[in-house]
Each structure stands twice: as structure tokens, then as C-alpha cells.
Write the C-alpha cells for this entry.
Amino acid sequence: MRRLDLYIIRKFLGTFFFTLLLLIFIVIVFDISEKIDDFLKRDAPLNAIIFDYYFNFVPYFINLFSYLLTFIAVIFFTSKMAGNSEIIAILSSGISFRRLMFPYILSAVILALLSFMLANFIIPYTNRGMFAFEKRYIGSHPEFSEQNLHKQISPGTFIYLENFNMRLKSGWKFTLEQFQNRSLVYKLRSERVDFDTVRNRWIISNYYERRINGMEESIHKGTRLDTILPVTPTDFMEDVEEEKIMNWFALRDHIRKKELSGDPGVISYKVKQYERIAFPFATIILTLIGVAVSSRKVRGGIGYHLGLGLALTFLYILCMQISTVFARFGNLPPLLATWIPNIFFGIIAIVMIRMAPK
């Protein structure tokens, strides 16, 4: 590595972390002003506020804004270099523009690896402490899915509940279906099911039972049926914050279980899994765009570069949000949905690099 490489890397990473620390300080000040009443009302200890909440909050915040701050850092110090004619001097000395990109790409890869480690291994661990603090001292509670529940409890066996009450351990509009070779062989419908916590059994009330054997069919009705099902009330509890405390391997195993049970909510978990890989790559792509935008000396100076850079960043965020919505509520595959912004902006980065002054 040349002295020039170290100079650019030091400028890049120094600007990034300085901007990050400044932004973290501002966000913490605003967050304290918003939550100070909850801290005082619930007598939260100072050491718990600092170490259990804000120390665990910092990694999440770093990863949330890493690619945005990377873009801003690249544009900020590269625009200053261009304004001081440093870029012109570097290119005039015989160093190619492609060679000039090396320290930028190396720094972006370091930040991308940091983002990947934070998202998949560090943040899931720190979120546990942060959520425990919020539940105790701020009063935020996880949300649960208790309506229109679909699950595959065993191969070929599916259950449906229109509504389930976790406090009463009771569900309404219960349906159980069994299939063999994609043909329905058994169906049970009931107005209500209750879980007996003493015997670990399900009590099915006012049920209607159908058994199908080819062209033959038998029907049976009853008022009460005690049975054992390979499912418990906790299986109907869906914590919306659950994904945030899972590392890469735990999330992968959780997705496999949801796929086995036929849970339609698996799409959201797949989107989150692929986002943990796509976002670090965004750091590299936005770095390339930032260099291409800010390496040209223009009359507008750094203000023009920052304005254009922020516009491109928010366009990337908007593109990511739109594509993931299509994945969750449409037919767009989750892997493609999370990578569409990277593919689109990757093409833009290649075009802009080719058009950059050399």
C-alpha cells in the first residue's frame, strides 16, 4: 500500500466514525428527552440506563445508518479533495482512476464486514438487553399474532384458527385437515377449542367430522372431543420483535420451521434474512457512486455533491422499501426483492464510474 492509500483510508474511516459519533450523541440526547419521564416514573437506575439500554442501542444505530453515513463521508472528504485540486494532482501524477478507487473499495469492504457482523451476530445479542430494559422501565410490550392462524402441525396435516385468546387459552372457528397425495381424507370443524393446561389436551366443542375414502364419505357430529395435538398455545404466539434477537443461524433455523409448518408469515423473516446480506453490499455500491459524484470539481462545491448524494441515498431507501413491500404482500421472491436496489444502483455505479473524469 502506498502513502496515498493510507491517506485516503484515514480520511474515509476518520470522517465516517467522526460523523457517526456526532450523530449518535445527537440521537441519544433527543432519545433521553423523550424517555426521561419513563425513566423517572419507573425509577430506572443510571447504570441500567447507560449500560443496559444505550450501550446496547449504539450497535443497532450504527448498523441502521452505516450505508448512509458511508455515502456522506465519501462525498464530504472527496469533495474537499476535489475542491483543493488534490484529485487533479493525483491523476496528473500518473495514477489511474481505477487505482485511485482501491483505498475507497478497501475501506468500504471493511465497513461492509462490520455491518454484516453487527446485523447477524452482535445486534441480536445486544437487542436482548435493550428489549429487557424497555419492557421493565419503558413499558413497551411485544405484539402477538392471534387472528387467522394457519399452521402445518405434521406432514399433510393443517390447522386453522380464526381467533385465539392467549389469556383464556381458547380459540374459535377451528379447522383441522389431513391430506394424502394432495387429496383431502379427513376434515374436522369446530366452533371452539380450549387447551387443558393440567392434562395438556385440547378440548374440541361442537365439532363436525368428515372422513373421506375415495368415493365414500362418513360424517360424525359431537359436542365434546378430548384429543392431543402436536401444538401448544405458545405456538400461536408471534412476537414481532423475535427476529431482532436471532443471529444468522437461529434465524435460518426459524425460517425452516416456519416453512415446515406452512406459515405464510415466513416471507417477512426471509426478507429480513436477505436484508442482512444486501445492506452491507449497499455500503460498497454507494461508495462507488459517492466517488464518481464527488471526484469532479464543480462550481457548486461540496453543497452540490452532498445534495445529490442525499437524493441518491433516499432514492435507494425508497426503492428498498417498495421492493420489500412487493415481497411481503405480492408475488415478488424475497431474495430478488432485497437485491433489486443493489442491482439497480450497482448498474448506476458502473455507469457513473465510467463517466467520471479520469
Q: What stands out?
A: Residues 147-236 form one domain. The chain has two domains: 3-140+266-355, 147-236. Strands lie at 147-154, 157-165, 170-180, 183-196, 201-213, 216-227.
